[in-house]
Amino acid sequence: MDSLEEINTLIQGYHNRLRATNSTFYRNIYSTIDWEDKLICIKGAKGVGKSTLILQHIRDTFKNIDDALFLSLDNLWFTTHDLYEVAQCFYAHGGRYLFLDEVHHYKPWQMALKNIYDDCPDMHIVFSGSSLLQLENGLADLSRRVVEYPLYGLSFREYLMFEGIVNMPAISLEELLANHTSIAMSITSQTKDILVHFAHYLEHGYYPFFKEVKRGYQQRLQRVVNHILEVDYPAIEEVEINTIRKAKKMLMVLAEQVPQMPTMSDLYRELETDRNQGLKMLYALQRAGLLGLLSDNTKALKMLSRPEKILLDNPNLMYAVGSKPETGTLRESFFFNQLSHVATVYYPHKGDFLVDKKYLFEVGGKSKTFEQIADEPNSYLAIDGVETGSRNRIPLWMFGLLY
Questions:
Q1: Where are the domains of the chain?
Q2: For FRET with 291, which of 10, 83, 152, 163 sits at 20 to 30 Å CA-CA?
Q3: pTM score, whole prediction
């Protein structure tokens, strides 16, 4: 393949995608990526906005858009054509910036990327994939070459910006703890419905595609979950159909239960598996972006240790897979999700969460008191249902301002 005309269909598709890209809202990670690295992986769950992030960079960077090439490898064209040959053709005609989306659809993508990297010395390659499990397995082959950037779902702060409600930069946890009252007053002066917006976010604001599907959001999110369990997970593990069915049931139970330490033996029995296989499943679903596993400080260093608490990764998943999410679990899922993206979170001996081995938090409603964490240093309450707090009582929604 030595003519660009042979890949004209792909180039036209790239132009169409670029033309439709919205550049009015940028994710927090956008400015932190060093786009000049030679091999970059942007990894994140399906629907968090990886394609949009890459296309925004192309639009903002290249005066001549054909200096770059964006390819989505889930295109049927690649079932009968070779990615390496396409890259060589692009390179031979002066192209030096190659952007590859949904790489896990191309087999074997790791070998193709390695060969392009080695044979095109000054080619810059950015790739992404929505199958976190398949992507993670393949990244080991590229570990000496690739720089990884995780892209998470929208923070509550990003959701407010995306919806055009409040525009503000991310703040550090230390800044939040020290100045939360003045920050809350500044935000609530810009919107009188912060708690309404927060409730909407918990139900449908984590994945940016909520703007595309409107009322079909939860159904689409259910399809994402099913794809992870039915396609991505079996692709890396030998999994029987019955096990997949049990995993779906487990997610529903976790969505509806009151926050508590799981009885692991009961969970393994429910999944009809042993401890080792059960833990492998839990940690695989964590890597896939479906579960949040909370361990204490001593176990966190051990591979496949028994988690002290299991939560769904984010509250939107709880609404999608559970018929009636439990309020306390929703609160904890939100707190753990937002904090775990910017800090290290442990299960403490007292309270609900220990952050960076320094800050102790108890999560609850308006009537929550310090009784359970009385006399503990650096202890705070994350209180749901309030717009502003005081001293060490901080509104729960404000922990969504950290990225």
A1: 4-150, 158-400
A2: 163
A3: 0.92
